[in-house]
C-alpha cells in the first residue's frame, strides 16, 4: 500500500511534469504563431527595355540639320560608341565602358550611377538626384531609339537627335 507522503510526492511530481509540459506547449504555440513579417518582394519591372544596350549612332532627327552639341560629345568622349546602358529590372540604370560619354551627355540625358528609369507607353523617363527628363522612344527586340532634345534653351524650338542603341 502507498503511504500518504508517497502519494503526495507522486502527485506533486506528476503535477510538476504536467505544469512544465503545459508551459512548454504554450511557449511553442506562442512562438510558432507569432506574426511573421517578411520583407516584401522587390518590385521587378518586366518591360522589354530591361537589358544592356550599346550606342551605335547619334544622328540629327531631321537629315541635314547641324547639331553643334553632337560634335562636342564626340570630341569629349571619343569612346562614345562603346557606351553601354543597362536598364535593370529594379528601375535603375548602370553605365559601362565610357565614363566620359556619361559626363558629356549628362546635360541632355540623365544617366549615371544614381539614375532611374520608367516607361509609360512611348515615353521613357530618366531621372537622377538633380533632374528628370522625359523622352519619346521606339524599341524592337534588338534596337532602341531615344529622341533627345539637344537645345537646352527652353525659349527656342527643339533640335532633336536620335540616340540609337543595339541590344547586346
Write up this protein:
With 168 residues, the protein is of the alpha+beta class. It folds into two domains: 37 residues; 117 residues, Lipocalin, CATH 2.40.128. Helices cover 27% and strands 30% of the residues. The chain has three helices and eight strands. Strands 3-2-1-8-7-6-5-4 form an eight-stranded antiparallel beta sheet, with no helix packed on it. Strand 6 and strand 7 form a beta hairpin. Helix 2 packs antiparallel against helix 3. The longest helix is centred in the N-terminal third of the chain and has 29 residues. The protein is rod-shaped and about 115 Å long.
Please supply descriptive tags for the structure shown above.
168 residues, alpha+beta, Lipocalin, 2 domains, 8-stranded antiparallel beta sheet, 8 strands, 30% strand, rod-shaped, Lipocalin family protein, Lipocalin-like
Could you spell the SSE succession in H and E letters?
HEHEEHEEEEE
Number of domains: 2
Task: Quickly name the level 1 CATH class of the largest domain.
Answer: Mainly Beta
- Give the N-to-C terminal Cα separation: 91 Å
In short, what is this structure?
The protein is of the alpha+beta class.
Chart the SSEs and their pairings.
Blueprint (H helix, E strand, L loop, with lengths): L3 H29 L18 E10 L7 H9 L7 E4 L5 E4 L2 H7 L10 E5 L2 E5 L4 E8 L3 E7 L10 E8 L1
Helix pairs in contact: 2-3
